[in-house]
């Protein structure tokens, strides 16, 4: 087993009504809060009302940054930093999905940097400190509620990049599955595909990873393929929503990365789809993952694929390649059952001439060609994009 350090410092309050923990969690870090939220879903669902009532009743001052976009923009991060500096904010409280939490994370580090926040996104070494974050999650998808990443877009530069730093783990996160009952079917499906993608990035490494991590990967994937289609059809199915919410956090909180390796090739390729076609992240992941799995199926990854087939779908057979391909087809069927299309054309791509540029940016900016046996060349990435056109 490879050496590793595992440290997830996020306190989780999981379950119905756990919003009541909000004042206590916030007060550990201060009494001046910036509430960060998106386009208004939290007002329609009543979560906003609950949160501000609790803050007010407990003598916590709050001001707001609303309008965080899906695929949050650096311009919104800049606005948040200004408010924090002006109001001397002590704690950030994002209420929403990954976009809102990621925006708060970028604000949290941007407050301590005198230059433009985009510098930090492109050069994480500029981070010196961060405001504490107490998040309230409303979509099961990215795992941002329990991880140390933030993904920010820059429309002006047609770019999307990550901040990764231990200091970004939220201090506390409130996970109430009933908050996700109102997530639309498409967003639910995209969220499930995103959870699966976080596992797939590690699943086919060909490494001898610890059994506990392997079993956890299977457990998360089984939750997704079973409860994903249920949650799409029955939005208020509490059991499905609860299992998916907890799976989302565990897919990416660092546990399965222990003793394992990934260069995150599929995410690097998906970010180019967001830049180019503004697709929802999880939908883009479903398209890329399906095509990438077909591309990387080889002697090196075969045992991982047959394990996946057996553990997640109960498929066994004499011909391991056929078993692996059947598992890939089953994976596609799960995406399609949830309503996700699997071609680039279906998300608005109309010019295959975009492919060379996307392939080059994904490979060179994310170092995909320097990932040992997992490496992808620009030509590999182009083939993957072409195969899902
Ligand atoms: O903006 P509002 O009005 O809140 O509506 C949102 C948004 O339109 C809506 N929504 C959220 N909760 C809802 C709801 N609608 C009804 N009821 C609710 N309870 O859902 C839409 C999507 O929200 P968003 O936050 O964008 O979704 P998601 O959680 O999938 O986040 C996607 C972003 O996270 C990044 C992605 O790249 C993308 O920018 N990622 C972040 C990661 C991380 N921090 O570790 C890892 C991921 O791989 C991913 O890259
Ligand atoms: Zn993702």
Automatic annotation (TrEMBL):
Keywords, comma-separated and alphabetical: Oxidoreductase
GO cellular component, one term: cytosol
Keyword Nucleotidyltransferase: no
Gene Ontology MF: a single term: metal ion binding
Highest taxon of source: Bacteria
Record's keyword annotation contains Chaperone: no
Pfam families according to UniProt: ADH_Fe_C, Fe-ADH
Domain Alcohol dehydrogenase iron-type/glycerol dehydrogenase GldA: 9-177
Annotated ranges, domain Fe-containing alcohol dehydrogenase-like C-terminal: 188-365
PANTHER family: ALCOHOL DEHYDROGENASE YQHD (PTHR43633)
Name recorded for this polypeptide: Iron-containing alcohol dehydrogenase
Origin species: Roseburia porci
């Amino acid at each position: 087993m490879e050496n590793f350090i595992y440290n997830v410092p996020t306190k989780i309050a999981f379950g119905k009504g756990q919003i009541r923990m909000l004042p206590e969690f916030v007060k550990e870090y201060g009494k001046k809060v910036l509430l960060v939220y998106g386009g208004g879903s939290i007002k329609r669902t009543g979560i906003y009302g609950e949160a501000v009532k609790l803050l007010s009743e407990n003598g916590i001052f709050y001001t707001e940054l609303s309008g965080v976009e899906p695929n949050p923009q650096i311009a919104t991060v800049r606005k948040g930093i200004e408010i924090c500096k002006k109001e001397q904010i002590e704690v950030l409280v994002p209420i929403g999905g990954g976009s809102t939490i990621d925006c708060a994370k970028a604000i949290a580090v941007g407050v301590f940097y005198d230059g433009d926040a985009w510098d930090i996104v492109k050069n994480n070494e500029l981070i010196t400190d961060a405001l504490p974050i107490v998040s309230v999650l409303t979509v099961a998808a990215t795992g941002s509620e329990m991880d140390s990443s933030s993904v920010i877009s820059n429309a002006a530069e047609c770019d999307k990049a990550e901040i990764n730093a231990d200091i970004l783990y939220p201090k506390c996160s409130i996970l109430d599955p009933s908050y996700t009952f109102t997530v639309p079917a498409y967003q639910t499906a995209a969220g499930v595909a995103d959870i699966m993608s976080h596992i797939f990035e590690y699943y086919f490494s060909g490494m001898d990873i610890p059994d506990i991590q392997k079993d956890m990967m299977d457990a998360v994937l089984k939750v997704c393929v079973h409860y994903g289609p249920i949650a799409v059809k029955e939005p208020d199915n509490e059991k499905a929503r609860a299992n998916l919410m907890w799976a989302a956090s565990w897919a990416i909180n660092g546990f399965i990365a222990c003793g394992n390796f990934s260069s995150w090739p599929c995410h690097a390729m998906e970010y180019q789809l967001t830049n180019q076609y503004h697709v929802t992240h999880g939908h883009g992941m479903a398209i890329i993952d399906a095509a990438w799995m077909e591309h990387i199926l080889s002697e090196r990854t075969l045992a991982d694929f047959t394990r996946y087939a057996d553990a997640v779908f109960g498929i066994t057979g004499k011909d391991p390649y056929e078993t692996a391909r059947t598992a890939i087809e089953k994976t596609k069927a799960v995406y399609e059952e949830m309503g996700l299309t699997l071609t680039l054309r279906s998300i608005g791509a109309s010019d295959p001439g975009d492919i060379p540029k996307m392939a080059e940016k994904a490979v060179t900016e994310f170092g995909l060609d320097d990932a040992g046996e997992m490496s992808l060349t620009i030509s590999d990435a182009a083939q993957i994009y072409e195969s899902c056109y």
